[in-house]
Amino acid sequence: MKRYELIREGDRVAVCISGGKDSMLLAKLMQLLERYSEVPFEAKYLVMDPGYAPVNRRKIEENAALLGLPVSIFETDVFDVANAAEKNPCYLCARMRRGHLYSNARAMGCNKIALGHHFNDVIETTVMAMFYGAQLQGMMPKVHSANFPGMELIRPLYCVHEEDIIAWRRYNHLEFLQCACRFTESMSLSGDGVGESKRQEIKQLLRTLRRDNPDIEKSVFNAIHAVCLDTFPGWKSRGEEHSFLEWY
Q1: What is the pLDDT of residue 86?
Q2: How many angstroms from the chain centroid is the CA of residue 95?
Q3: How far apart are alpha carbons 159 and 151 in whole angstroms?
Q4: What is the pLDDT of residue 196?
Q5: Are 51 and 78 in contact (CB under 8 A)?
Q6: What phi, psi does 74 have (nearest 5°)?
Q7: Cβ partners under 8 Å of residue 232, min gap 6
Q8: Pairing of strands 71-75, 112-114
């Protein structure tokens, strides 16, 4: 929070809860932070139902009650629309979900939304962009919304390791949604835990590399904080492409 200046006095933050371990822990941490922080702010707890099966919707409600989180739930047809798409259903789903969250958060008087992306998400996104997107691109701890002026997205779990989130869940004997997405159900049925998910593929790759270099993920994380632009032949900044020839 302090390193990236994610919260300012008077902020009203919509903490977005998907029902998984990450967003549930984020919500509880934000609730405690609101209570004890030296920087006064207000947190709201927002749950979007994109078309969950009844059992998954019920699980979210039960966990919210167990953790003492006063959630506001709204419904959308995101799953139906995304699953009907012939190309890039995951991308479409993510864009639609983000838009609904921003819209409802703004209606609640919030100026920020908080998502549960953690340290390992940052590393995996960086490696995926390089391997499959042909670009060096990271995940920012906070970003301004391009479509909702005055709104901002923050990631308070940016430096929290997934293994620590799992340890918290196990220690407290909690059960959260694994993945309620219909499209990725094939991943759990594939037998190898990967299916067609590139993110899972990268996650397994990093686990393998960590055997020889336990600090490999820390190295990637530190690398995106110390990019040496003087050694790159090209880069993009604020949507514009640049070449080393501009200063060579």
Answers
A1: 72
A2: 13
A3: 22
A4: 53
A5: yes
A6: -130, 155
A7: 136, 244
A8: unpaired
What sections of 108-244 are H helices per DSSP? 119-132, 162-171, 185-189, 198-212, 216-223
Tokens linked to 135? 């670009």
- Which stretches of the chain drop beneath a pLDDT of 50? 186-195
Report, in angstroms and rounded to the nearest whole number, the Rg of the chain calculated over CA atoms: 19
Give the model confidence (pLDDT) of 50-83 as tens digits. 999 999 999 999 999 999 999 999 999 888 888 7
Q: Cβ(199)–Cβ(124) under 8 Å?
A: yes
Secondary structure letter of residue 52 according to DSSP: -
Residues facing 43 on adjacent strands: 13
- Quickly tell me which residue has 């340290």 as its tokens: 119
Who's near 194: CB < 8 A, 6+ residues apart? 187, 200, 201, 204
In 3-state terms the chain splits into helix, strand, coil percentages (rounded to 5) of: 45, 15, 40
Residues in the chain: 248
